[in-house]
Design a protein that fits this description.
Helix content: over 70%
CATH class of the largest domain: Mainly Alpha
Number of domains: 2
CATH superfamily of the largest domain: MFS general substrate transporter like domains
Distance between the termini: 37 Å
CATH topology of the largest domain: Growth Hormone, Chain: A
CATH architecture of the largest domain: Up-down Bundle
Number of helices: 18
Radius of gyration: 22 Å
Shape: globular
Order of helices and strands: HHHHHHHHHHHHHHHHHH
Largest sheet: none
Structural class: mainly alpha
Length: 432
């Protein structure tokens, strides 16, 4: 049998439920990244330009609360779903998420926007483990790798398509329409769940919430594992700048005319008088597009390399990408920085997941992989506030954006040094 036929056979081997949750993932992640690609810009934009006029520091506080929740909630919501059913959890998730987006588009006061976003992230956090759980129960050893590959592609496809196509159109009408789009994009999934999605077979043993919390305590007492997570989270402080400080910097300091001219020149071959403009939402598009184009190539290059050195190399690339932003305000330099950072991310992160699986005790691999999410909790909790306050200090007050990017690059360097020391003195021998 040829490779092509094997792959076709594998794709045909997925049940209908698999494709239903892939569709759910595409729309949910598309809605989420569509909103997140411009949220920090909308919240600080002056009222006369259609924004809410919040201070950058207050937006940093919002981001440092809602993003960590997205990483913490799946642990508890996954356990609740195993006890009470996936369909019930999805009903709750789509209802709360859709309402959160809808009210974020309606309200204008800081407190109500904060609460609306908390609703959104509560729904998103409850949704996340159901999809990966359904895929795990819809695949087997022969097609699991392909199944999760399609899953990750659907995430990046949503993060690519929604900001590229929908966001520029909607914000030209009204910023509120972006949130209404996300409310519809996630709200219709309630009916897909109600009429089409089938409850997967329950696992034989479902953990209680108490057992989940006990598991958390067990993991937290493994100081080597926790130390590695804390060090690695330094890189994610940099990553979360892509949704805050990088967007503000683009709006305040960047002239993207050379990129606009190039893209419109390409589009001119297909349509007359194109008027495409690079804006905040396209930062997410570059990141997701780079991953869609290069992830398979990067993964094949590093598939046999050791985990910790590969992570260090990837973080090194990400750090260089961040430093490049401080070198010049030229449009193509900015683009190069974002692309190099994205390549660093796709090099480091899959190897991080692989490494966690490698160092986890044989009988606790799933538990350790579940709690490896702490990198996102720490990275986003620090990154949101640190980014906002640093931006106000270095860029708004001192008019020195280069200092901001070099400061974050130093965090990247500190992360690399931390992982080098960890590999030399602390990592389990033969597993790095």
């Amino acid at each position: 049998m040829t490779e092509e036929k094997k792959q076709k056979a594998s794709i045909k081997s997925f049940p209908k439920n698999f494709w239903i949750v892939i569709l759910m993932e595409f729309f949910e992640r598309g809605s989420y990244y569509g909103v997140m690609s411009v949220l920090s810009v909308y919240l600080v934009l002056s009222a006369d330009k259609g924004g809410l006029g919040f201070s950058k520091e207050s937006v940093g506080v919002i981001k440092s609360v809602i993003t960590p929740m997205l990483y913490i909630l799946p642990i508890l919501s996954g356990a609740i779903a195993d006890r009470f059913g996936y369909r019930k959890m999805l009903m709750f998730a789509f209802t709360v998420m859709s309402l959160g987006y809808f009210f974020t588009g309606l309200v204008t006061s800081y407190g109500l926007v904060f609460v609306s976003l908390l609703f959104m992230v509560l729904g998103a956090g409850c949704f996340k483990p159901i999809i990966s759980g359904t895929i795990a129960r819809s695949t087997n050893e022969s097609n699991s790798t392909l199944g999760f590959g399609i899953f990750y592609w659907s995430i990046n496809l949503g993060a690519f398509v929604f900001p590229l196509i929908l966001i520029p159109i909607l914000k030209d009408i009204s910023w509120s329409y972006i949130f209404f789009m996300a409310a519809i994009g996630t709200g219709w999934l309630f009916f897909l769940n109600l009429f089409v999605y089938k409850e997967p077979k329950r696992p034989e043993s479902s953990k209680t919430i108490g057992e989940v919390l006990k598991g958390m305590v067990k993991v937290l007492t493994d100081w080597r594992f926790i130390l590695m997570i804390v060090i690695y989270s330094g890189f994610w402080i940099l990553y979360f700048q892509m949704f805050d400080t990088v967007l503000w910097y683009l709006k305040d300091h960047m002239d993207m005319a050379p990129v606009d001219k190039f893209v419109n020149g390409v589009l001119g071959a297909f349509i007359s008088n194109p008027n495409w403009k690079f804006d905040a939402e396209h930062v997410t598009v570059i990141n997701a597009g780079t991953i869609i184009l290069l992830q398979l190539i990067v993964s094949s290059i590093v598939k046999n390399t050791k985990a910790l050195p590969t992570m260090i190399f990837g973080i090194g690339l990400g750090t260089i990408g961040m430093a490049i932003l401080g070198i010049s305000t030229h449009a193509w330099v900015f683009m190069a920085g974002i692309i190099i950072f994205s390549i660093g991310e796709m090099t480091a992160h899959p190897k991080f997941i692989s490494y966690v699986g490698l160092i986890a005790p044989e009988d606790k691999k799933a538990l350790y992989l579940g709690y490896s999410f702490l990198y996102g909790v720490i990275g986003s909790a620090i990154g949101g506030v640190l980014g906002a306050f640093s931006y106000v200090h270095f860029v708004d007050k001192l008019n020195n954006p280069s200092a901001l990017w070099f400061m974050f690059s130093l965090i990247g360097v500190a992360t690399i040094i931390g992982l080098l020391l960890y590999a030399k003195f602390i990592a389990p021998k033969g597993k790095h």
